[in-house]
Amino acid sequence: MGMMAGADVLDEKTMIAAAEKALADIATIRQEVSKAIFGQEAVVESTLLAVLSGGHALLVGVPGLAKTRLVTTLGTVLGLDANRIQFTPDLMPSDILGTEVMDQDENGRRSFRFVKGPVFAQLLMADEINRASPRTQSALLQSMQEYHITVAGQRYDLPAPFHVLATQNPLEQEGTYPLPEAQLDRFLLQVDVGYPDLAAERRILLETTGISETQPSAVIHAARLQEIQRLIRQMPVPDGVVDAILSLVRSARPGEGNDLTDRHVAWGPGPRAGQSLMLAARARALYHGRLAPSIDDVHALAGPVLQHRMALTFAARAEGISVRDVISGLVKDARK
């Protein structure tokens, strides 16, 4: 069995006991989330995997599909201190990070005091993130990668754990600014949110239009979430799975000998994609009650991990080919 360098190795008995406890917690979390989010199991799973892996997620879907509700519900159920920012074109970096205000004491001495912005939360909901200007979007970059911010040369650490769950509307491109590649790469997963199925939509109609709605409650707390995140980083990864991750990520880069990629992909995923796949595959294994990830976990996560880290050539876009089509082709090749 291969292990990620630097991880503390747990003995098998301790690992099984910790995994069973984590599994019970995850089952309760899923049950509690389902009180507020009907259907959408794949979306709930992907978003939870991002948080359990210690990363950030980008939820992409048309308005009205309960993206905001999902994030709010997760904040409650996971016992995290949550804040929400509605991104707009006139939003300034200081509206996210905070600002310095001048104080005056009774002797007339003046000094600056930092007033923290909404980024100081364990779960930050960035609603319609592509509506803000690039300058404001970049204010989130440092916090998402380094877990601290710098204002007027002073460093301020963010709370732990710190997760950004951002939503993006793919349809209305007027008044939006595409997220820069560097920021997209900071998201562990991109979660595509589709329409609910018939049974789920019927349940939505019946259960959300009455006088009272079922409200989810906290199942775990921040410290317990961090314990589960540590456990996931300690899970052993078989060498075959590491090879499958490397092979898949490298096959998505032009110039690596894959005909499909060379024809359609302008640029492909960097090493961070492999790191994300490694973590998310471990989280998915635990989510489904297994102690080590399999190659199937890698293939199942290929879309959410890779699609926002690749760009197609103009010719591929003109032919109507999507990034998802290319990734499906790469996974199909890998399964042969």
Number of strands: 11
For the record, give the distance between the C-alpha atoms at the N and C termini, rounded to a whole number: 23 Å
CATH superfamily of the largest domain: P-loop containing nucleotide triphosphate hydrolases
Number of helices: 14
Indicate the percent of residues in helices: 40-55%
- Shape assignment: globular
**Quick one: biggest sheet?**
5 strands, parallel
Order of H and E elements: HHEHEHEEEHEEEHEHHHHEHHEHH
Domain ATPase AAA-3: 56-189
Enzyme class: hydrolase
GO molecular function: ATP binding; ATP hydrolysis activity
Domain ChlI/MoxR AAA lid: 261-327
Describe the protein in words.
The two termini are 23 Å apart. Helix 11 packs across helix 12. Strands 2-5-8-1-9 form a 5-stranded parallel sheet. The protein has a two-stranded antiparallel sheet with strand order 3-4. With 336 residues, the protein is of the alpha/beta class. The chain contains 14 helices and 11 strands. The protein folds into 2 domains: 10-88 and 118-235, 3-Layer(aba) Sandwich (Rossmann fold); 237-336, Magnesium chelatase subunit I, C-Terminal domain (Helicase, Ruva Protein, domain 3, Orthogonal Bundle). It has helices at residues 12-33, 41-52, 67-77, 93-97, 134-146, 181-184, 198-207, 222-234, 239-251, 259-264, 271-287, 295-306, 314-318, 323-335, and strands spanning 57-60, 82-86, 98-104, 110-116, 123-127, 148-151, 154-157, 163-168, 189-192, 265-267, 311-312. The radius of gyration is 21 Å and the shape is globular.
